[in-house]
Design goal:
Blueprint lengths: L18 H6 L12 H8 L7
Length: 51
């Protein structure tokens, strides 16, 4: 899409874990660690574009 000159918008949604599974059977495996969202931008751009 970038090669065609189109503008891309990325939506990141953080659900904080498996809510339904916590209600059924609670455990540490239901907690998902949060991502470092600012590092994601650094990972997908090539150093020449604007983010």
């Amino acid at each position: 899409m970038l090669w065609c000159g189109q503008i891309n918008i990325i939506f990141l949604v953080n659900n904080g874990g498996y809510t339904i599974e916590v209600e059924i059977h609670d455990g540490p495996y239901n907690v998902i660690k949060n991502w470092n969202y600012t590092a994601l931008v650094e990972a997908i751009h090539n150093g020449e574009g604007k983010c």
